[in-house]
From TrEMBL:
Gene3D superfamilies associated with the record: Aldehyde Dehydrogenase, Chain A, domain 1, Aldehyde Dehydrogenase, Chain A, domain 2
Keyword RNA-binding tagged: no
GO biological process: L-valine catabolic process; thymine catabolic process
Domain of life, source organism: Bacteria
Organism: Aquipseudomonas alcaligenes (strain ATCC 14909 / DSM 50342 / CCUG 1425 / JCM 20561 / NBRC 14159 / NCIMB 9945 / NCTC 10367 / 1577) (Pseudomonas alcaligenes)
Protein name stated in the entry: methylmalonate-semialdehyde dehydrogenase (CoA acylating)
Encoding gene per record: mmsA
Pfam families for the chain: Aldedh
Length: 497
């Protein structure tokens, strides 16, 4: 009988009283790995109250001590890198190498959080008026919440809680109900690193738990990563309840291929960036825009994609794993069928894909369309599967126009040998993360993850300096110290100098 996973409340792993349980399955076999509870009202209240209480003492812990906690945590995460990747691969189906990458990208954020002392430095100006100085400090907000998606169950929780907590906040994590085992293990290691009780709480469940957190008066800030409709709901509801919200949402990322680009580089980068992790990455390339004569490479692209073989996470020859759920697979199959019905040319159809030994897996083969038009659903919707659509244009200007007309703005890349074309593209394109001959330009944690337009609701982005500003408030102190100069009477006007 699969175990019901516990929740972390006030430093204790507690069994939930939930009546409703969610199955966590291995997407390659449908084996039920565990059951996740849907946190009850009382458990949500207890987690919030405990986090609020813990904040009063945690905010007083010296910043270097908070930094040292992150150093120990980073060390433990590295020690448990393989173990975390195995848990992650088991519940997501990602290949082991890709699962290690997911964990690694998170470790890098914990590493960055260990620099919190310099990140928390404020500003000072001496003599803003005669013998008066002004200093600004940043202070934590209170209880912050993180709501995370299924596709990076290590990296995305780690985008959030290490920095929020290093800033002096307490944090409630509500991970995806589809793969909560990795986040639970991350939290266990955080306790082992020395995190005091209540500083990190973990609640499980879906919409009802999220809504209770979004509307609770004791929550100050919400970080969300997930799909567009849920992101819009989170942003609207959270801000309506007067909270600070950053909501990272879906994407449709274009790669622009200039005819002067090195063909072999283009093709191998396109294959990896579109089908890696079965296309279930918010920065996956899902649209290839061939400019001019580069369209002649599409047949070769199809041949290279056809060689990809999905497989079980322990199979070192597998290019990628299954889709996260049967529903996700059916949704992608439906979109592939719609693409054909709408008149796109399907060069490779992965709708019916079998992996020997794993008859029940949510497999999809690599899928490639050409002659795709902007009004087709395979262009308009985020597919989130190993599906690449090809568009053809005559000029770079047309490519820019196409990309800028998209409602999304997460990532894009251009492949070219021309510095002028690349410079023009990076300047003109309305997308927050641009790669030049780099297919998936995810910034490392000392920058920030800067999606734009429909891929992000809010203003301050994830990790880096922007996250420190998101998780803190600025306090400005203006001070003067008296000497023995006689008082010249009350000052009734604003001083002009
Ligand atoms: P999702 O929106 O279904 O779920 C995300 C989280 O929201 C989960 O914790 C889930 O429990 C919760 N949730 C789901 N429905 C809800 C509802 N109606 N009300 C309140 N909460 C709800 O997303 P997913 O399928 O887990 O993840 C895939 C999506 O995430 C893709 O669209 C992908 O592009 C996006 N994503 C974006 C980024 C980014 O940085 N922009 C990064 C990773 C993933």
């Amino acid at each position: 009988m699969p175990q019901v996973i516990p929740q972390l409340i006030n430093g204790q792993w507690q069994a939930s009283n939930a009546r409703e349980l969610i199955e966590v399955t291995d997407p390659a076999t449908q084996e039920v790995l565990a059951l996740a509870p849907k946190a009850t009202h009382e458990e949500i209240e207890a987690a919030i109250a405990g986090a609020k209480q813990a904040f009063f003492s945690w905010r007083e812990v010296p910043v270097p001590e908070r930094a040292r906690l992150m150093l120990r945590y980073q060390h433990l995460l590295k020690e448990h890198h393989d173990e975390l990747a195995e848990i992650l691969a088991g519940e997501t189906g990602k290949t082991f190498a890709d699962a290690k990458g997911d964990v690694w990208r998170g470790i890098e954020v914990a590493e960055h959080a260990a620099n919190i002392c310099s990140l928390m430095m404020g500003e000072t100006v001496e003599n803003v008026a005669r013998e008066i100085d002004t200093a600004s400090y940043i202070q934590p907000l209170g209880v912050c919440v993180g709501i995370t998606p299924f596709n990076f169950p290590a990296m995305i929780p780690l985008w959030m809680f290490p920095l929020a907590i290093a800033c002096g906040n307490t944090f409630i994590l509500k991970p995806s109900e589809q793969d909560p085992l990795t986040p639970n293990r991350l939290a266990e290691l955080f306790l082992e690193a020395g995190a005091p009780a209540g500083v990190l709480q973990v609640l499980h469940g879906g919409r009802e738990v999220v809504d209770a957190l979004l509307t609770h008066e004791d929550i100050r800030a919400i970080s969300f990563v997930g799909s567009v409709p849920v992101g819009q709901h989170i942003y609207r509801t959270g801000t309506q309840h007067l909270k600070r919200v950053q909501a990272f949402a879906g994407a449709k990322n274009h790669m622009v291929i200039m005819p002067d680009a090195p063909k072999d580089q283009v093709l191998s980068n396109l294959v990896g960036a579109s089908c890696g992790a079965a296309g279930q990455r918010c920065m996956a390339i899902s649209v290839a825009v061939f400019v001019g004569e580069s369209k002649q490479w599409i047949a070769e692209l199809a041949a290279q994609m056809a060689e990809l073989r999905p497989g079980y996470w322990k199979d070192s020859g597998a290019a990628y794993g299954p889709l996260i759920s049967q529903q996700a697979k059916q949704r992608v199959q439906k979109l592939i069928a719609e693409g054909k019905a709408e008149g796109a040319e399907c060069l490779l159809d992965g709708s019916h894909c079998e992996v020997p030994g794993y008859p029940d897996g949510n497999w999809l083969g690599p899928t490639l369309f050409r002659n795709v038009k902007p009004n087709m659903s395979i262009y308009r919707e985020e597919i989130f599967g190993p599906v690449l659509v090809c568009m053809e244009v005559d000029t770079l200007e047309e490519a820019i126009e196409l990309v800028n007309a998209s409602p999304f703005g997460n990532g894009t890349s251009i492949f070219t040998r021309s510095g002028g074309a690349a410079r023009h593209y990076q300047h003109a394109v309305e997308v927050g993360q641009v790669g030049i001959n780099v297919p998936i330009p995810v910034p490392l944690p000392f920058f920030s993850f800067t999606g734009w337009k429909g891929s992000f609701y809010g203003d301050l982005h994830a990790y880096g300096k922007q996250a420190v500003r998101f998780y803190t408030e600025t306090k400005t102190v203006t001070s003067r110290w008296f000497d023995d100069t006689p008082v010249s009477g009350p000052n009734m006007t604003i001083q002009l100098k």
